[in-house]
Amino acid sequence: MHKKVTVVGAGNVGATAAQRLAEKGLCDIALVDILEGVPQGKAFDLMEAAPIEGYDARIWGGNSFEITSGSDVVILTAGIPRKPGMSRDDLLSINRRIVRDVTHQAVQYSPRAVIIVVSNPLDAMCHVAYEASGFPDSRVVGMAGILDSARLRAFIAMELKVSMQSVQALVLGGHGDTMVPLIHHATVGGIPVTELLPPGKIDALIERTRHGGQEIVELLRTGSAYYAPASAAVEMAEAILNDRKKILPCAAYLQGEYGIRDLFVGVPVVLGSGGVEEIVEMDLTDAEISALQKSAAAVRELVEAMQNLS
Fold this sequence. Notes:
By secondary structure, this protein is of the alpha/beta class. The protein has helices at 12-23, 38-53, 88-109, 122-133, 145-160, 199-210, 212-220, 227-241, 286-307; strands at residues 4-8, 28-32, 59-62, 73-76, 114-117, 140-142, 167-168, 171-172, 180-181, 187-188, 191-192, 246-255, 261-272, 275-279. Helix 4 (122-133) links the parallel strand 5 (114-117) and strand 6. Helix 1 (12-23) packs parallel to helix 2 and helix 1 packs across helix 8.
C-alpha cells in the first residue's frame, strides 16, 4: 500500500476509524495519541487481527508525530467530551488548544495532506485546524453531515422496516440542534418519504436526528457515539484516497455560497484527492435557505465566542 492516513486520537472514534480503514484495505495507518502505550497497544492489536480479517495494512502506533510522515489524509479526533459542570467556553478553550497543537504537528510531517476534522465542537474546530494548518480551505473539511444524514436514514429505515440501503437523505448546516434535514429530498427506493410517512411521524424522526448523539450519550452514560462517527470519517477518507469525486455533506469553508461567507458549514461537496473540489449549490426552498442561514448564524456565534476567549 502506498496511501497513508494519520488518525490523531486513539480513543473510541480514532481506534474504530483505524480499524475501518484497515479492514477496507484503503491505506497504511499511523495512530497517534498523547497517552503512552495506548496507540502502540491498539496498533499491535489491529496488526494481530490482520491474519484473521485478511488485510495487509501496516499500522503504527506512537506518541510522536514522526510516524505520521507523508500522510495523504489526517483525521483529527483528539479532544475531550463535555463533562458535567463544564461550560461551553471551557470545552471550546481546551479543545481549541488540543486541535491547534496536533494540527501544527501533523502538517509539519504531512504538508500535502487533507485534514478531516472530527473533534467537537466540530464547526468551530474546523476553523482552528484551518488557521493552524495554513492550508488552502479546500484541504480542511469537517465530518458532520454524513453522520447526521446517516442517523436520519437509519431512523427512516427502522420506521418503515426497509433496507438501510434503500433510504437516501441529506442533512446540512451546523452539527447540532440547528442542523437542517432536507426532508423533501429524502427518498426510499426513489419514492419521496413524504409519500410514505405522515407529517407528524416525519417531524418526530427529524427531532430524533437532531438529538441522536445525545440519545446515545444518555444510554452509554460514560461515553458517546463512535461507530457511526468513525464510519463517516472513513467514508470521507476513502473518497479522498481513491479520488472518487463523491458528493457528500461535509463542513466546508463557504465564501458566498448559500449566502454564507467565511464560515465552515455543512453543505454538499465533491470530495476527491484535492479535498473539497467543488461546493454543490442546491436549489433550496426559501424555508430551507432560511433554516440553513439560521444554522450558520449559530455556528458563527460559536466561532466568535471561541475567538474571544483569552
